[in-house]
C-alpha cells in the first residue's frame, strides 16, 4: 500500500525559486525546517542550461539570507549593448556574476540541507490532486498530503500541465534560447576584463532578442558562454532561424557551431493574465514567469522565493489558505513588480523591424536607460552611468 505523509508545506522543484522559498522560511523561523520538504526529479549537481547571470538584485537577496556565492564565478564589471555599429556600456563592481547553474543550484541545495531542510532528490511527481483541506501529491515513492504546495518546477512545469494551469491561448508566453560553450584562453579580452556583451543586431534577422557573450568557467577552464535569446513576445511573426543566427555570430568570433555542443531550452515569461495562485497552491520562479526583455531569470526566481515565503507564513498565521494575496504581494515587490514593465519594454523594442528605425531608437537608448535607472532602479539593475563607445 502507498504510504501517506502529512506535512505543512511541499515545494516541488529544487531550483533557485524553490530553495529560496525554503531558506526564507527557515530564516523567519527555524521550526519551518521540520514542517516542509522539497522534492525534485533531478539529482544535484544536474545539468541546467542558463547564461548564469546573477544580477545585483539577486546578490542582495542572497546577502539578506547571509549567503555569498561560493561556487566559482566571474565578476562582470562592464556590460556592452550593441546594435550594428552602435555600442554603449554600463560599468560597476560588479554589475553581475556569472556562475555555472549546476554548481549554483547544488550549492543552494546544500545550504538548505545545512539548515535541516529535507530535500528529496530523484523523486519525480506523478500526480497532483487539490482537495479542500490539503493537496495530494503522488511521487514515484509515496503520496504526500500538504497544506500548501509551492510549484517551482520550471518553465516546462509538470504540475501546471497536469492541472491545466496555463495561458490558455494559442501562443504561450515562452521564449526560445540556444546556448554553446567555447573554450578560451584567460587572456581573452572579455574574460580578462570581465565584460559581457548583448548584441541586438540579430533583430535584423527577425530575432526578438539578442546574441550574448558571457565569460564563464567550467571545471576551472576559461570558457565563453554564448547564445541567442528570442523572446517570441510577438508570437504572430515567423520564427527566426536561431541556429543560423548563432552560427553566423560564432563565425564572426572565429568559432564554428559544428565544433561545439549546441543546446536549447525555453523560458516562460511573465504573463499578467496568469493566475499566480490557487487555494493551497502558488507558482514561483520560471513556473510563474520571468523577464522577456533580456531573459533574466535567476534573480527573479530568488525574489519569488522571498515573496512565496512571506505569503505562506501569513497564510498559516491567519489560518487562511486561499493565498489570494500572493499576486498583490508579487506586484507590490520592488523586484518582481517590474516584470509587467519589462514585458511592456520587450513588446515595444521587439516590435521594431525597420533597421533605420532601430538605429534611431538605439541612438536614444542610453539617455532613456539613464532615466529609468534613476527613476526605477529595479527596472534597469545597474547604475545610471551609461556611456557611448565609439
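Q: What amino acid sequence fits the structure above?
A:
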Amino acid at each position: 500500500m502507498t504510504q501517506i505523509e502529512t506535512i505543512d508545506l511541499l515545494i516541488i522543484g529544487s531550483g533557485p525559486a524553490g530553495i529560496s522559498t525554503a531558506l526564507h522560511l527557515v530564516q523567519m523561523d527555524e521550526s519551518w525546517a521540520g514542517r516542509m520538504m522539497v522534492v525534485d526529479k533531478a539529482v544535484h549537481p544536474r545539468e541546467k542550461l542558463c547564461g548564469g547571470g546573477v544580477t545585483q538584485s539577486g546578490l542582495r537577496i542572497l546577502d539578506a539570507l547571509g549567503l555569498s556565492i561560493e561556487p566559482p564565478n566571474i565578476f562582470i564589471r562592464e556590460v556592452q549593448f550593441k546594435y550594428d555599429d552602435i555600442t554603449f556600456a554600463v560599468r560597476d563592481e560588479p554589475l553581475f556574476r556569472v556562475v555555472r547553474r549546476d554548481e549554483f543550484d547544488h550549492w543552494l541545495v546544500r545550504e538548505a540541507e545545512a539548515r535541516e531542510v529535507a530535500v528529496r532528490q530523484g523523486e519525480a511527481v506523478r500526480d497532483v490532486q487539490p482537495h479542500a483541506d490539503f493537496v495530494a501529491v503522488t511521487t514515484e515513492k509515496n503520496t504526500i498530503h500538504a497544506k500548501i504546495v509551492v510549484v517551482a518546477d520550471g518553465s516546462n512545469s509538470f504540475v501546471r500541465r497536469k492541472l491545466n494551469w496555463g495561458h490558455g491561448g494559442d501562443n504561450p508566453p515562452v521564449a526560445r534560447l540556444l546556448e554553446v560553450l567555447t573554450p578560451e584562453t584567460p587572456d581573452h579580452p572579455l574574460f580578462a576584463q570581465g565584460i559581457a556583451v548583448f548584441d541586438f543586431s540579430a533583430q535584423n534577422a527577425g530575432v526578438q532578442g539578442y546574441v550574448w557573450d558571457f565569460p564563464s568557467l567550467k571545471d576551472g577552464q576559461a570558457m565563453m558562454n554564448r547564445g541567442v535569446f528570442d523572446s517570441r513576445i510577438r508570437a504572430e511573426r515567423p520564427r527566426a532561424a536561431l541556429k543560423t543566427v548563432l552560427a553566423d555570430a560564432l563565425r564572426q568570433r572565429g568559432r564554428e557551431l559544428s565544433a561545439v555542443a549546441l543546446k536549447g531550452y525555453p523560458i516562460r515569461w511573465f504573463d499578467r493574465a496568469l493566475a499566480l495562485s490557487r487555494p493551497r497552491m502558488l507558482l514561483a520562479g520560471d513556473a510563474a514567469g520571468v523577464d522577456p526583455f533580456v531573459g533574466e531569470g535567476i534573480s527573479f526566481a530568488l525574489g519569488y522565493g522571498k515573496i512565496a515565503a512571506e505569503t505562506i507564513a501569513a497564510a498559516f498565521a491567519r489560518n487562511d489558505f486561499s493565498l489570494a494575496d500572493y499576486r498583490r504581494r508579487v506586484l507590490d515587490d520592488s523586484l518582481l513588480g517590474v516584470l509587467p514593465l519589462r514585458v511592456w519594454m520587450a513588446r515595444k523594442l521587439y516590435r521594431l523591424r525597420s533597421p533605420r528605425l532601430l538605429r534611431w531608437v538605439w541612438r536614444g537608448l542610453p539617455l532613456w536607460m539613464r532615466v529609468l535607472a534613476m527613476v526605477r532602479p529595479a527596472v534597469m539593475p545597474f547604475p545610471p552611468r551609461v556611456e557611448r563607445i565609439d
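Q: And what stands out in the fold?
A: The chain is about 30% helix and 30% strand.
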